[in-house]
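Saturday, quiet lab. Running sequence design on the structure tokens for the scaffold JK sent over.
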């Protein structure tokens, strides 16, 4: 019998790799954990090459089954959620508890290969690209990055039946018109322009349908389907083309979870759910219809929406909503700095803020004209007192 993800997630705190507390861990942190894991009999650890700045990449292998599954995370250095989830997953397999039957099933039917943190140089400085400035996920053909070469050669060597391509997406993505963020987005990437569904892609779609069902029970209407436009330079699209049924899991936003610790749990759950289905080989009856019913992602979320703003220009008063997004940067001493950008302004009905502030009865004083894609520079005054301000993107809250 299958264990449900809700049941397994109930014990999540026991699996959680407690050494990783925030999103800003680096290669040294995971190297320590990999060293510990290598001492167990369950995982075989192999050094498979180095990043541009000579940080070693490790492949972890477990299981004895004939179905080969390859999972890789953090090709984009600033997308760490799934790396955290993979270390939680290693603990799940290493622990003995009431889900031992599930683990046994997965490890008997599958051989699992993990490449966590494909882009350690990017992770070090929390950037998408690697140390050469290359977006590894556009380097499948040109093979100019050592990380891209390692990832591609591993696929060719392992020839996995299934692949899990693990990323974070901007928290602006919403689950269609549900009003909720796409906390998790799923996709079986296309392998051609016309988005053909062959037997390889079909399997990925069917497994995703099952994962979605379980996630929906846990976070109703917070799952999106990523746009399936063919990206000929990306790994997922090409792996699908090479015969690996590839499942993209993107970790998005959730209210009050900037640190993505709830998302981490969901990604862990989604992976366990997928592996269980693959091991049981019970996905082949799933219709593709259900997959296409997962609402397609649309960008309807802002970090903050300032609602009902009153502005004045040439003595004329007018009203608008202002949508702000947060730009995250690590400063030189590795402290997180958040700068808010004006993303859109006007009638933002049908759009949502993780935080919404109703500014009716206040007045907004602008330093510059409202222009999308610029750092917010404005002051919110109520009865002549400043209650909120943005200076060069930096927020100062007073009585709000
Ligand atoms: Zn990514």
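Result came back. Writing it out in full:
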């Amino acid at each position: 019998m299958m264990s449900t993800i809700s049941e397994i997630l109930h014990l999540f705190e026991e699996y959680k790799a407690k050494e990783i507390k925030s999103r800003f861990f680096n290669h040294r942190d995971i190297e320590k954990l990999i060293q510990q894991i290598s001492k167990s009999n369950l995982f075989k650890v192999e050094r498979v090459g180095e990043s541009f700045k000579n940080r070693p990449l490790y492949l972890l292998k477990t299981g004895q089954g004939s179905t080969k599954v390859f999972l890789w995370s953090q090709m984009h250095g600033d997308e760490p959620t799934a790396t955290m989830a993979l270390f939680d997953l290693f603990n799940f397999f290493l622990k003995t508890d009431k889900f031992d039957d599930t683990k046994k099933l997965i490890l008997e039917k599958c051989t699992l290969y993990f490449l966590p943190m494909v882009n350690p140089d990017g992770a070090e400085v929390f950037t998408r690209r690697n140390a050469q400035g290359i977006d590894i996920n556009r380097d499948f053909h040109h093979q100019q990055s050592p990380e891209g070469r390692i990832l591609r050669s591993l696929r060719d060597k392992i020839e996995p039946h299934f692949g899990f391509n693990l990323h974070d997406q901007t928290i602006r993505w919403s689950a269609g018109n549900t009003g909720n963020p796409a906390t998790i987005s799923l996709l079986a990437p296309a392998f051609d322009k016309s988005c053909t569904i062959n037997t390889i892609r079909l399997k990925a779609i069917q497994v995703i349908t099952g994962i979605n069902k379980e996630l929906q029970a846990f976070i109703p209407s917070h799952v999106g389907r990523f746009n399936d436009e063919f990206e000929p330079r990306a790994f997922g699209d090409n792996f699908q083309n090479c015969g690996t049924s590839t499942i993209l899991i993107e970790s998005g936003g959730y209210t009050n979870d900037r640190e993505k610790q709830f998302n981490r749990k969901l990604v862990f759950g989604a992976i366990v759910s997928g592996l269980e289905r693959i091991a049981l080989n019970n996905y082949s009856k799933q219709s593709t219809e259900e997959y296409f019913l997962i609402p397609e992602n649309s960008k309807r979320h802002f970090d903050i929406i300032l609602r009902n703003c009153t502005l004045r220009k040439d003595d004329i008063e007018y009203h608008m909503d202002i949508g702000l997004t947060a730009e995250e940067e690590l400063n030189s001493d590795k402290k997180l700095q958040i700068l808010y950008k004006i993303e859109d302004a006007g009638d933002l009905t049908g759009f949502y803020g993780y935080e919404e502030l109703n500014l009716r009865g206040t007045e907004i004083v602008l330093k510059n004209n409202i222009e999308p894609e610029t750092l917010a520079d404005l002051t919110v005054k109520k009865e002549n007192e400043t209650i909120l301000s943005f200076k060069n993107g930096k927020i100062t809250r007073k009585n709000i």
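Notes for JK: Residues 76, 79, 167 surround zinc ion (CB under 6 Å). The CA atoms of residues 198 and 335 lie 47 Å apart. Ask whether to fix the surface positions before the next round.
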